[in-house]
Specification:
elongated; 74% helix
């Protein structure tokens, strides 16, 4: 049992590093450093606070506010959004909204997200977290290097049309390279691209189950069995079809491959 603890601890460190990297990166867009030597927090309440102390207080306030949004940030800038939506649509297509339970569905989505995002988190750990902990770079450099792999992942999954939309809405100059795209523009473009991809995959998943429902309904109507709910007959056939084609294997493979992994 003790041999698994280092791996769990390492995974939590990577998750925390990803959250802090994105949080500080977004917070840095709203507040600049107050002094080159680093901010100092003073608890002296005598006299009026100076501009530097006010700037430090605002930075702390902004940082604490953004930290409360860290779970949402982790969900929206990773593969979790696409995976959980596709699995939810699959559950609805089967016609059993209660199975698998939400805990199982979220757990599977979370571990598939770990699998898809592992190269990105490994790059963040190797390029930013470990050098920063070793004292080989300052905080600003670590943030820039840490957010770079995450931006690369998001840019790879973002449609050009969605990115162009938010560039126009932000009224920023047209970026010449990927590095010129601001993070606050990239994140919403990535999110709507993920939503569109997830619903496209969900539509394809619905088709075979819809065919079964149509066939069963037509058969019951032709037999004059109008009082018998078609769901009672089609549900076992849909479950049988899903089991025969090894549906969980196909869905998991399609989700992972959709990210180019």
């Amino acid at each position: 049992m003790s041999s698994h603890r280092p791996h769990c601890r390492h995974a939590f460190i990577l998750l925390f590093a990803l959250a802090v990297t994105l949080t500080l990166g977004l917070a840095g867009c709203a507040a600049q450093p107050a002094a080159e030597a680093g901010p100092r927090l003073s608890l002296n309440v005598e006299g009026n606070p100076g501009p530097q102390q006010m700037a430090v207080g605002l930075q702390i306030l902004i940082l604490l506010t953004v930290l409360t949004l860290t779970p949402a940030l982790l969900i929206m800038v990773t593969a979790f959004t696409r995976i959980v939506i596709v699995l939810s649509l699959l559950r609805n297509a089967l016609g059993i909204p209660q199975l698998p339970p939400n805990q199982v569905l979220l757990g599977l989505s979370l571990f598939l997200t770990f699998f898809v995002m592992s190269p990105t988190w490994t790059a963040i750990n190797d390029q930013a977290l470990q050098p920063y902990l070793a004292g080989q770079m300052d905080q600003q450099t670590a943030l820039e290097r840490g957010i770079a792999p995450l931006r690369t992942f998001m840019l790879k999954q973002t449609r050009e049309r969605d990115l162009s939309l938010f560039v126009q809405l932000a009224k920023t100059p047209r970026p010449r390279t990927a590095d010129d795209v601001p993070t606050y523009v990239l994140v919403p473009a990535f999110i709507i691209s993920e939503l569109k991809t997830a619903f496209q995959m969900g539509f394809v998943i619905f088709i075979p189950f819809l065919v079964i429902d149509i066939v069963v309904s037509s058969t019951l109507m032709s037999m004059g069995m109008l009082m018998l709910p078609p769901v009672m007959i089609s549900l076992p056939f849909k479950i049988l079809l899903f089991v025969l084609v090894d549906g969980w294997h196909l869905i998991s493979r399609s989700l992972v491959m959709s990210f180019g992994s």
